[in-house]
Specification:
Blueprint lengths: L1 H4 L15 H15 L15 H4 L14 H39 L33 H34 L4 H32 L2 H23 L9 H6 L5 H35 L3 H13 L2 H24 L1
Length: 333
């Protein structure tokens, strides 16, 4: 109740904040420390504050290292030398390409703007020259591995046809009535080896190289038939020139060695069929990611036909012949 007894209108009591015990003790310590300090004597006997109490890390002055003119000139000279070496390297590369182009043009091996054929790899003294240009480095990296696999499949295809000739020859030696199979096996080897290269390997090579929709569609059309041919060859219908399973099993009772050879070839034909189906799926998956379509294939075909010089010459010749024939008839009339 003492709080209610005081007069609220009375003057407030002056309170000296410096009369507090803690404040008085702090000010007395500061006075004692300053009393013994003489700025001219160079000797301080008072209490000092350690450095570790004020700062945990010392202040570091960042000094800027200025490059001397001599060092700057040396660095600039090094840059100029490096740029000169790069320019000389590019000039040498351009000279080398120009020299190769002039050599090809002078020898007549290649027309201007074309690349020199390098496949099949034949010796220089051979009268037969390479017919195609092949370089897997010009294939995009995403498709290069698949393109190489297609090339290896073609090589395996050709080797199987050659072994088929040997198997049919062995079969012909045991049965003189099987000359038809031996003759057809030679025909299949001579015919299907280059046809497979031109009709389904080169189209897929061009499709991967230039992302051609027309080449993709042409490859799919031909390769589907190639898979069917592999299946027929692996079956081995008699008198069809294929050392397949049916023909090889029929020889088991007469000659076991020949039957084993023919079974090996039949197994190779089966492997061709299986690998062809697998690679067909892989190529189709990559084709779907390229954005190719049948409409683009039609446009590429029409542009290719209209811009083909042989087609243009043939069309011009046909038009000239038709015009001359019409003029001759009118003149006779």
């Amino acid at each position: 109740m003492s709080g209610f007894d005081s007069n609220p209108f009375a003057d407030p009591v002056d309170v000296n904040p410096f009369q507090d015990a803690s404040v008085t003790q702090a000010t007395s310590r500061v006075a004692e420390s300053l009393a013994g300090y003489n700025p001219f004597s160079g000797d301080y006997s008072g209490t000092t504050i350690p450095v570790s109490a004020t700062s945990s890390q010392p202040a570091v002055l960042q000094t800027s290292v200025e490059q001397t003119p001599k060092a700057a000139a040396a660095a600039a000279q090094a840059d100029l030398v490096k740029q000169q070496e790069e320019l000389e390297r590019k000039a040498a590369e351009l000279d080398r390409r120009e020299q190769e182009f002039q050599n090809r043009t002078a020898s007549g091996n290649a027309a201007p703007g074309t690349k020199e054929n390098n496949w099949p790899p034949l010796p220089k003294f051979s009268p037969i020259k390479p017919c195609f240009y092949q370089n897997f480095e010009e294939i995009p990296e995403d498709y290069r591995r698949t393109c190489k696999r297609m090339y290896y499949l073609w090589m395996f295809h050709s080797s199987t046809l050659f072994l088929n000739v040997l198997a049919c020859l062995a079969y012909f030696t045991t049965d003189q009535n099987r000359g038809v199979d031996f003759g057809l096996s030679i025909l299949w080897f001579i015919l299907f080896t280059p046809v497979a290269f031109v009709c389904w390997y080169r189209p897929v090579y061009k499709a991967f190289r230039s992302d051609s929709s027309f080449s993709f569609f042409f490859f799919f059309f031909v390769f589907f038939m190639q898979v069917a041919v592999y299946i027929i060859q692996s079956v081995g219908i008699p008198s069809w020139g294929n050392s397949g399973w049916i023909l090889s099993i029929s020889v088991l009772g007469t000659n076991l060695a020949v039957a084993v050879i023919m079974m090996v070839v039949a197994g190779f034909f089966t492997m061709n069929a299986v690998l062809a189906v697998i690679l067909l799926k892989i190529v189709h998956a990559k084709y779907r990611r390229t954005g190719a379509s049948f409409t683009k294939a039609q446009e590429e075909f029409s542009k290719g036909v209209l811009t083909n010089r042989n087609f243009q010459n043939a069309a011009a010749s046909a038009a000239t012949s038709a015009a001359q024939g019409a003029f001759g008839q009118n003149h006779q009339n």
